[in-house]
Amino acid sequence: MANHSQLTLQDAASPIMEELVQFHDHAMMVALAICSLVLYLLTLVLSEKLSSSTVDAQAIELVWTILPAAVLIALALPSLRILYLMDEVNEPDLTLKAIGHQWYWSYEYTDFKDLTFDSYMTPTTDLPLGHFRLLEVDHRVIVPTESTVRVIVTADDVLHSWAVPSLGVKTDAIPGRLNQTSFLANRVGVFYGQCSEICGANHSFMPIVVESVPLANFESWSSLTSS
Amino acid sequence: QLIPLFVIIGSGGVGAGLYLMRLAMFNPDVSWDKKNNPEPWNKMSPSDQYKLYSVNMDYSRLKKDRPDF
């Protein structure tokens, strides 16, 4: 989950999110380089160490057209690669339905018999010591590690959005429409997210918690809960 | 002197045109022949690759284990 003083993205828990973090680092370096170059040139100009009396600017114009074009291509290629990677259909091992309501999520694991539950936020008055305020829920979404999970997101009433930043997932929940996304949790852990589309009074109070556990634990949990 | 300009703009235009042709011909969301092929999006098979670039996934090896539409 995010700390209050955090500047960077949350730790990645899925391969897609790792790619996104790497791309963010790459793009940040490009942006920092350009900004420092501009700042340096600005100081030169303001301290009158840079002047120009040329009338024929063909060479420098070629340079400052080709170089930004190259930078943009260096940004676009990794970006498009990740975009296409995120959209791949990759034979999920588990299908999970996430349905947004005002103001809670309900989850259906229809691969199993009758595994459905609602997930309400734990009110702050009932929060045990050491737990995260406005982020904990009563029933977490349990998924097995190292397994591709397909999530079908929809809503019952108004627009919501199912987002878990550590997994690199954000999908809008639209009434009357099924949106599909997928992720793979590559480590055990608890991953927090919050509803990401304004949906009324308690929009900030319907979080999402995904807990990834080893496959054996997942199987025992699913057989326990669905019976 | 303006040759690089023509080359770059020309290749961009040609590329855009080619991609538009690809979309018109191979995109399952477009329907040209309303009588014989009115809804081509119903005929998508799991072993076809529809996007231009596939990073990791070899779609030809996916099994088709669902009934036809």
From TrEMBL, chain A:
TM spans (from-to) = 27-47, 59-84
- Keyword Zinc listed? The answer is no
Residue ranges occupied by any Cytochrome oxidase subunit II copper A binding domain in the UniProt entry: 91-224
Give the protein's function: Component of the cytochrome c oxidase, the last enzyme in the mitochondrial electron transport chain which drives oxidative phosphorylation. The respiratory chain contains 3 multisubunit complexes succinate dehydrogenase (complex II, CII), ubiquinol-cytochrome c oxidoreductase (cytochrome b-c1 complex, complex III, CIII) and cytochrome c oxidase (complex IV, CIV), that cooperate to transfer electrons derived from NADH and succinate to molecular oxygen, creating an electrochemical gradient over the inner membrane that drives transmembrane transport and the ATP synthase.
How does this chain sit within the bilayer? Multi-pass membrane protein
Q: Which protein family is named in the record? A: Belongs to the cytochrome c oxidase subunit 2 family.
> Taxonomically, which superkingdom?
Eukaryota
Q: Which Gene3D superfamilies match?
A: 1.10.287.90, Cupredoxins - blue copper proteins
Under Pfam families, the record lists: COX2, COX2_TM
The protein's GO terms of the molecular function aspect are:
copper ion binding; cytochrome-c oxidase activity; oxidoreductase activity
Ordered alphabetically, the record's keywords are: Copper, Electron transport, Magnesium, Membrane, Metal-binding, Mitochondrion, Mitochondrion inner membrane, Respiratory chain, Translocase, Transmembrane, Transmembrane helix, Transport
Give the protein's recorded name: Cytochrome c oxidase subunit 2
Q: Name the reaction it catalyses.
A: 4 Fe(II)-[cytochrome c] + O2 + 8 H(+)(in) = 4 Fe(III)-[cytochrome c] + 2 H2O + 4 H(+)(out)
Q: Which organism is it from?
A: Sinosuthora webbiana
Q: Listed GO cellular component terms? A: mitochondrial inner membrane
Keyword Electron transport in the entry? The reply is yes
Q: How is the cofactor bound?
A: Binds a copper A center.
Its gene name is: CO2
| Cofactor(s), by name | Cu cation
Task: List, in alphabetical order, the GO biological process terms annotated in this UniProt record.
Answer: ATP synthesis coupled electron transport
- Where is this protein localized, as stated in its record? Mitochondrion inner membrane
Annotated ranges, domain Cytochrome oxidase subunit II transmembrane region profile: 1-90
UniProtKB/TrEMBL annotation, chain B:
Top-level taxon of the source organism: Eukaryota
Stated membrane topology is: Single-pass membrane protein
- InterPro entries, per this entry? B12D
The entry's keywords = Electron transport, Membrane, Mitochondrion, Mitochondrion inner membrane, Respiratory chain, Transmembrane, Transmembrane helix, Transport
Q: Tell me where it resides.
A: Mitochondrion inner membrane
User: In terms of one coarse class, where is the protein primarily found?
Assistant: mitochondrion
Family to which this protein belongs = Belongs to the complex IV NDUFA4 subunit family.
The name under which this protein is listed is Cytochrome c oxidase subunit NDUFA4
